Amino acid sequence: MVHRKRTVVLLILVVMLFSAVSSVAAQTNEPATIGSAYFVPSSIATGGSTTLNIDNLKAASATTTVGLCFYYSDSGMDSLFPASVTGTRSTTYTRGYQGLDSAAVTCPSMGSGRITEYAGTPNAFAKLLGENVDFAGTVSSANGVYPVDILQLEDLVLTDGFSTSLTIAAAATDVYVSNDTACGGNAPCYSGTTALQQAFTNVADNGTVFIYGTYSQGGGVVAALTGSKSVTVSGFNSPIIENGGGTCSGAMIENQSSGFLIFSTVTLDGTCAVGSRSAGILQSGVGTTIVQDSFMTIRDFVAVGSSALRVSNGLLIARGNGFQNNQKAFDQTGGTLYAFANNINTNLGANAATKSAGTSNVTCNYWSASTISGFGTDFTERLGAPMVSYNEGSGTLTLDAASLAANGGTQVIVGMGRVNNPFGNGTVEGLGARVSDYYAACGTGATALSGLITIVGDSVTPGPTGFRLYSITNPLECSPASNTACWDYQNVSCTTAGCSVTGSVARDGHFMVGNEVDPTAVSLQSFGQQSGVMLWPVAVLLALMAGMTFVAVRRRRA
After folding, report:
1. Which of these three, 360, 382, 404, is where a domain ends?
2. Alpha-carbon gap, residue 364 to 178, rounded angstroms
3. Mapping DSSP to helix (H, G, I), strand (E, B) and coil, where does residue 215 land?
4. 321 vs 344: CA distance, rounded Å
5. Is 9 a domain residue?
6. Averaging pLDDT over each range in 313-317, 429-433, 467-471, which range is the top one?
7. What is residue 307's predicted lDDT score, i.e. its pLDDT?
8. DSSP result, 158-173
9. Could you give the dihedral angle defined by the CA atoms of residues 292, 388, 379 and 368, in that order, rounded to the nearest 10 degrees?
10. Are residues 260 and 245 both part of a single domain?
11. Is 241 among the domain residues?
């Protein structure tokens, strides 16, 4: 009896030992599973970025090759899956196929939709302990919910699967960026050192990023516009983009895209506490950047070699801006640069603009006391006084009392008011008074010359020879300020109050209408801004009357 009991106990121990060994063997040989798969963030706007995280990916110890199969419905998600990706334990997974599910190569076909296949050879640690593999990119799919099914293959044998999904919302047309985390009550609002980059990523194509008040971008952050998206940067509440904390480097904003970046009515401040920026805005992609009407200035890009605006590729257009205290306003190393109607002041470098390669037209800019280098004869067509207003485009253009006839291309008319004489020279033979503002005209873009100019004179009485059109054809003749060769009579005039004078030859240059009085050199600065009455006869008459009164008084006293 005792012997039988011992036998039973022994059998039980044998069974238990066998079970334990079998369990260990099974754990050693069974294929391990994908720990989890999920998107971060799991909800994005169209054109936004996300990361598909595959966590704790394991494999049986005898496995040589691990395959990953991703199934999804829309090609807008293709960009999530790069040519290769490396896991946290150094396994490189290489993309073998991407395309229609029906044409799958190593993965089983699931029917319709798309598939991306990867294969990698994990090391022993990765197989035993697991590793994380992340797939990051932008998604251009339309708004909706997009499931992603994931299968794991070990030496072409299906061993595990997981499913997750990504929600895509329609991108916002208008987004806001500010140091104010509420953006003044506007939404969606982005704040923080990378906020402008996030706004570029999330705003809809052809949308607008509004800068609300002051925004401090990280000193080492470059806000880059990529892909084919077109975006406008504008603002309100005194908008300023400045450098926040961190060491400054690179450009503040870079257009790497094939689309359009329009930067308008925002101050760009390059001041850095540590380091320096290479540029305020860099146009480096094949697309176009337009910087316009930032009258509050693009300023303080002061480091040697830096520039407020730089173009190396594509097209950069700058119009109607103020530049202040920069090493230089423009630097062109390639691409195309068109700049006009800009006021450029207090440049720190030897030249306010430099060019080493590319196509350009930089006429009709006010360079203050600076010169430019590499732009051929464009400097001779510079503005002689600061720009006050401008109008640019194709066809007939009008600005205040002046207009330009169509020139078959694009052109600009610039108003300079009456306070500042172009090149400091307001001396004209026989001119009694200005009866118009000063204007300048230039062909823009690839257009050589502006069209015929017409200027309407003030509603005052013309002198003996009427209102005359004058122009500056050679700025070198405007020095000194008393040089009467500066302004050339264009042989066109009119003789009624408020009449208009049209040029006889299409040319770029400075223009104004004067009221002819007598053939002597008279400085425009000695007269009021408007004068339709010949003042010297009045002065003589008053003097005679005073003299007669004096004589009559003396006779009475006598």
Report:
1. 382
2. 35
3. strand
4. 8
5. no
6. 313-317
7. 97
8. EEEEEEEEEEEEPPPS
9. -100
10. yes
11. yes
- Taking each continuous run of H as one helix and of E as one strand, the counts in the chain are 4, 41
Q: Is 60 exceeded by the pLDDT of residue 70?
A: yes
- CA–CA dist 321, 340 (Å, integer): 9
Instruction: Output the CA–CA distances (angstroms, integers) from residue 1 to 4, 13, 35, 178, 297, in the order listed.
Output: 5, 19, 53, 90, 106
Note whether 327 and 426 are same-domain residues: no
Question: Based on the structure, what is the number of domains in the chain?
Answer: 3
Cβ–Cβ < 8 Å for 500, 429: no
Q: By residue range, what is the domain housing residue 511?
A: 394-531
Mean pLDDT check: name the lowest of 24-33, 77-86, 285-294, 522-531. 522-531
Summarised one tens digit per residue, pLDDT across range 473-506 is: 889 999 998 898 899 999 999 999 999 999 988 9
CATH value at residue 143: 2.60.40.10
Instruction: For 245-291, give the secondary structure using H, E and C.
Output: CCCECCEEEEECCCCEEEEECCEEECCCCCECCCEEEEECCCCEEEE
**Stretch 370-376: mean pLDDT, rounded?**
96
Q: What is the DSSP string of 399-426?
A: ETTEEE---SSEEEEEE-TTTSPGGG--
User: Is 353 inside any structural domain?
Assistant: yes
Neighbouring C-alpha atoms within 13 Å toward the C-beta of 40: 7
Between 371 and 433, residue with greater pLDDT: 371
Task: Report the alpha-carbon distance of residue 123 to residue 57 in Å, rounded.
Answer: 12
Co-location of 185 and 160 in the same domain: no
**Which of these, 319, 344, 352, lies nearest to 442 by C-alpha position?**
319
Which residues is 16 bridged to in the sheet?
A: none
Residue 33: pLDDT above 90? no
3-state secondary structure of 191: coil
One-letter amino acid for residue 501 of the chain: V
Choice between 279 and 33, residue whose per-residue pLDDT is larger: 279
442 and 508 housed in the same domain: yes
Is 220 contained in some domain? yes
Backbone CA torsion sign across 20, 21, 26, 27: positive
